[in-house]
Amino acid sequence: MSAPAPASPRALHLLFAAQSLGGASPPIIISLGGLVGQQLSADPTAATLPVSLYQLGLALSTLPAAWVMQRHGRRPAYVLGAVLGVLSGLIAAQGIAQQDFVLFCLGTALAGFYAACVQSYRFAAIDAVGDPGLQARAISRVMLGGLIAAVIGPQLVIWTRDALPMTPFAGSFYGQAALALLALPLLLALRLPPPTPASVSGPARPLGAIVRTPQFIVACTAGVVSYGLMAFLMTATPMAMVGCGFSVGEAALGVQWHVLAMFAPSFVTGRLMARWGKLPVTALGLLLTSASGVIALMGLELLHFWGALILLGVGWNFSFIGATALLTESYRPTERAKVQALNDFLVFGTVALASFGSGRLLHTAGWDAINAGMLPLVAAVLLMLAVQAWRQRAATTTAI
Q1: 394 within domain boundaries
Q2: Which ranges carry the Major facilitator superfamily (MFS) profile domain (predicted)?
Q3: pLDDT digits (tens, 9 = 90+) for 147-181
Q4: Which of 137, 144, 276, 354 is deepest in the core (most CB within 10 A)?
Q5: 10 Å Cβ neighbour count for 196?
Q6: CATH number for the domain that contains residue 101
Q7: What are phi and psi of 7, to 5 degrees?
Q8: Are 53 and 140 in contact (CB under 8 A)?
Q9: Rounded to an integer, what distance in angstroms lies between the CA atom of residue 235 and that of residue 33?
């Protein structure tokens, strides 16, 4: 059995910094996409289309991004993603300047490839440490960059949304392009440890056989539901807040608190998984997600919106990082590329479908229906996690 690749602290530092810059783009697109959509589109139900197309672009990009990574390595794929991130911000800003809804949607959709690469940084963190015992902490460490992104993205919206008086919000998307440009030298300097012989040779199961295993089903379902619900509610919340009389700035600050809550727990998530296990931490995250829905149903004051967003963010952190760590138990080293790509395609494909429906549901069913509807989904995944925990205990008892 070959030894794991040595840890690369420099690579983790660079991935952390790149996550800080690349992770700032989604808050900009999500907090402004629906508002710009309302401004540019004559159909109110199409207001969230720019955000939905961003999510769709992310989902569709996971497979080609994985192909580029497998064929040429992670660094060239990440550099290409950052270049497209620059272009996407420029195109979206031009769409606003020209009052062209289609051009704006093209810009947000193109940002999806950059986002697919940024989402893959958590898997690059696994490559950087090699040792399975350190993988959960490495994922948490890189995703801490989202804590910086949680400040950069919403604050950039607040500082730049009126920077160009004749074209409100265009300045924020120029800022998005600038952040991607700043990430380029970091990604060009990235060097990951070479793959171990076990990761490039040896037996590999067909993908169909892997996806039928309980480990993959549970991990992927937890990731799909945790990320899908988070994106669904975060897309609808700014519009719901503005519809209830709150300002764009208050909505942007709500998103900022939410994104801070998404990544701040990463200081302890890896340690919690090392102490309690991956399944309990994932379940805790889903319970917090359901609690956010309960708070949202309690009223329409500013504290209800912000409180729900904060709990939703913490819940996402525990459940999504937990699901990512659980996924590593479902594949062998030679299978990791295809399993990681399929997992992200399913996760972000579901996110795209959810975001497509959020604007219409908010317009037709209302805010309460959106929050009440998520509770049965969370309950179903919690049941799956409980069954998987029982299976693991039974297997351990049998082995003893």
Answers
A1: yes
A2: 215-400
A3: 888 788 878 888 888 788 788 889 999 999 999 99
A4: 354
A5: 16
A6: 1.20.1250.20
A7: -65, 150
A8: no
A9: 9
Contact 333, 198 (CB under 8 A): yes
pTM above 0.90?
Answer: no
* Nearest of 223, 323, 312, 220 to residue 263 by alpha carbon: 312
Q: Which residues, other chains included, contact 218 with Cβ-Cβ below 8 Å and sequence gap of 6+?
A: 326, 384, 385, 388
DSSP 330-390: S--GGGHHHHHHHHHHHHHHHHHHHHHHHHHHHHHT-HHHHHHHHHHHHHHHHHHHHHHHH
**CA angle at 277 for the pair 9 and 213, rounded to the nearest 5°:** 100
Q: Per the domain annotation, does 306 fall within a domain?
A: yes
Strand, coil or helix: 105: helix
Distance between CA atoms of 94 and 176, rounded to whole angstroms? 13
Residue 139 to residues 102, 126, 135: CA-CA distances in angstroms? Answer: 36, 7, 6
The token pair at 328 is 């590593």
Considering the domain boundaries, does residue 1 fall inside one? no
- The count of C-alpha atoms lying within 13 angstroms of the C-alpha of 78, restricted to the half-sphere facing its C-beta, is 26
Residue 39 to residue 36: CA distance in whole angstroms:
5
Tokens of 295: 């708070």
Give the per-residue pLDDT at 197. Answer: 52
The boundaries of the domain holding residue 89 are 9-195+205-399
Give the DSSP H or E segment for 44: none
Residue 4 covered by a domain? no
CA–CA separation, 299 vs 296, rounded Å?
Answer: 6
The confidence score (pLDDT) of residue 201 equals 55
Q: Give buried/exposed letters for 201-237 (b at 16+ CB in 10 A, else e).
A: eeeeeeeeebeeeebbebbbbbbbbbbbbbbbbbbbb
| Long-range CB contacts (within 8 A, 24+) of 324-327 | 324/122, 324/139, 324/219, 324/223, 325/135, 325/136, 325/139, 325/273, 325/278, 326/215, 326/218, 326/219, 326/222, 326/278, 326/279, 326/282, 327/216, 327/219, 327/220, 327/223
**Counted domains in the chain:** 1
List, for the chain, all residue ranges whose pLDDT scores fall below the cut of 70. 1-8, 45, 130-133, 194-202, 355-356, 358-359, 398-400
C-alpha R_g of the chain: 20
Residue appearing with tokens 């709150």: 246
| Identity at 158, one-letter amino acid code | I
